[in-house]
Amino acid sequence: MRKICFITGTRAEYGLLKPLIDKFINDQNYKILCKSPMDK
To answer: What is the domain extent for residue 18?
Structure first.
């Protein structure tokens, strides 16, 4: 299992990366180290 961390500077950047982040969240080969409160 690989660990991955996404860091963004703004909510706008987060919004652009959200679809990619969701793919990693749903992939069992990766472990998300921290999750944003904006993820529901």
So the answer is: 2-32
Q: How many domains does the chain have?
A: 1
Q: Is residue 9 part of a domain?
A: yes
Distance in angstroms (rounded) separating the CA atoms of residues 40 and 4: 19
- Per-residue pLDDT, 8: 84
- Those residues of the chain that have pLDDT short of 50 are none
Model pTM score: 0.67
Confidence (pLDDT) at 10: 86
Under a CB-based contact definition with an 8 Å cutoff, are residues 24 and 4 in contact? yes
Report the C-alpha gap between 21 and 32 in whole angstroms: 9
**Per the domain annotation, does 24 fall within a domain?**
yes
